[in-house]
UniProtKB/TrEMBL annotation:
Principal place of residence: cytoplasm
Catalyzed reactions: (2R,3S)-3-isopropylmalate + NAD(+) = 4-methyl-2-oxopentanoate + CO2 + NADH
PANTHER family, per database record: 3-ISOPROPYLMALATE DEHYDROGENASE
Protein name per Swiss-Prot or TrEMBL: 3-isopropylmalate dehydrogenase
Cited function: Catalyzes the oxidation of 3-carboxy-2-hydroxy-4-methylpentanoate (3-isopropylmalate) to 3-carboxy-4-methyl-2-oxopentanoate. The product decarboxylates to 4-methyl-2 oxopentanoate.
Pathway note: Amino-acid biosynthesis; L-leucine biosynthesis; L-leucine from 3-methyl-2-oxobutanoate: step 3/4
Cofactor note: Binds 1 Mg(2+) or Mn(2+) ion per subunit.
Oligomer and partners: Homodimer.
Classification of source organism: Eukaryota, Viridiplantae, Chlorophyta, Chloropicophyceae, Chloropicales
């Protein structure tokens, strides 16, 4: 899937709220770095979310889905806003993202929680506990208890019950485990698989399958280590000793909870990137963790760094251009080290630091 000129095609989906403002910054940064590195990228913009509802009546127009399928990678900014809050749940802007993930078969969610040293005071945890935290959570996204059958409500001996099923097939565990192995190879190589194998059969299968795939793939020879942790212990360790973690591999519900927990310890929502990826060679979706921030939309106040770091993740994991990712991540570190902050970050720096408040577009120019 690439442009006829050999350029790789990036589908850009600015979406709603602050989306267009932060997307502008990310595209500008990517263009500059790609040119410097001699990498050829072409950007093609498409509608999604509330913007697409206004234009076409649907949160994910057919044209957008087809363009994303044909692209090399997808960069998404943010979806949703007050204007569409009254729509029924199936017509809401956010549905566009779920349909896009399903349409691209994105079964793996990558959520880094990385603490920039310059933002130590934004975290609710003590600086000495979180210093140097750099975690990647690899969460299975399309299976487990959120999708398992049977599910529903039923009568239970005159009482009422609601029920869901947590089920994983070996093949589902193997494919998410292999995503985590690849990620771990590009990092420190220390993998922790998180489950509840002391209580759940589905977790026993998960644990065994991960161990077998690790062995079959010769991961030890590639310098990886694998250990297992129960999810309750992991939640505790994320608070008491988060810097022990490198890559956490886990299922859908545990990953949902742990990735939100891990993002809070870094203290800066506007800084965090994420990715939803499929099998190698297929497009993934790269987007910031934060939402469309309708309260500050159109005011040039948004922090574009979560979007910019999502673009860096796309370079590293989607385009296989790690040098571009390094350059972008270093540029982010450098502007923070020089004291430049968007409004949301003004309180998150060590006392006494000399700070300069900048707008979204100014931050883009400084990168
Ligand atoms: P979601 O759309 O995922 O439900 P949400 O409604 O929970 O998200 P956000 O849209 O992320 O929340 O906004 C939460 C708060 O954080 C808002 O006050 C918003 O202004 C602020 N915020 C979010 N992202 C940014 C950003 N990039 N820069 C500055 N402030 C932000
Ligand atoms: Mg919201």
């Amino acid at each position: 899937a690439s442009g006829g000129d050999g350029a790789r095609v990036i589908a850009t989906l600015p979406g709603d709220g602050i989306g267009p403002e932060i997307m502008n910054v990310a595209v500008k940064v990517l263009e500059t770095v790609a040119e410097g590195e001699g990498v050829s990228l072409r950007f093609e913009e498409h509608a999604i979310g509330g913007d697409a509802i206004d234009k076409t009546g649907k949160p994910l127009p057919e044209e957008t889905l087809e363009a994303c399928k044909a692209s090399d990678q997808v960069l998404l900014a943010a979806i949703g806003g007050y204007k569409w809050d009254n729509l029924s749940s199936k017509d809401r802007p956010e549905g566009g993202l779920l349909q896009l993930r399903a349409g691209l078969d994105c079964f793996a969610n990558l959520r880094p929680a990385t603490l920039q040293d310059e933002l130590l005071e934004g975290s609710p945890l003590k600086p000495e506990v979180i210093k140097g935290v750099d975690i990647m959570i690899v969460r299975e996204l399309v299976g487990g208890i959120y999708f398992g059958e049977p599910r529903g409500f039923k009568d239970a001996d005159g009482d009422r019950a609601g029920y869901n099923t947590m089920v994983y097939k070996k093949s589902e565990v193997e494919r998410i485990a292999r995503v985590a192995f690849e990620i771990a190879k590009a990092r420190k190589g220390n993998l922790v698989s998180v489950d509840k194998a002391n209580v759940l059969e589905v977790s026993q299968l998960w644990r065994q399958t991960v161990a077998d795939a690790f062995e079959a793939d010769g991961c030890e020879a590639d310098g990886l280590s694998l250990s297992n942790m129960y999810v309750d212990n992991c939640a505790m360790q994320l608070c008491t000793n988060p810097s022990q973690f490198d890559v956490i591999l886990t299922g859908n519900i545990f990953g949902d909870i742990l990735s939100d927990q891990a993002s809070v310890i870094t203290g800066s929502l506007g800084m965090l990137p994420s990715a939803s990826v499929s099998s190698p060679g297929k497009p993934g979706i790269y987007e910031p963790v934060h939402g469309s921030a309708p309260d500050i939309a159109g005011q040039d106040k948004a922090n574009p760094l979560g979007m910019v770091l999502s673009a860096a993740m796309m370079c590293r994991y989607g385009l296989n251009e790690p040098e571009m990712a390094d350059i972008i991540e270093d540029a982010v570190k450098s502007v923070l080290a020089k004291g430049y902050r968007t409004g949301d970050l003004m309180g998150a720096s060590p006392a006494g630091a000399e700070l300069t408040q900048v707008s979204c577009s100014q931050m883009g120019e400084l990168l």
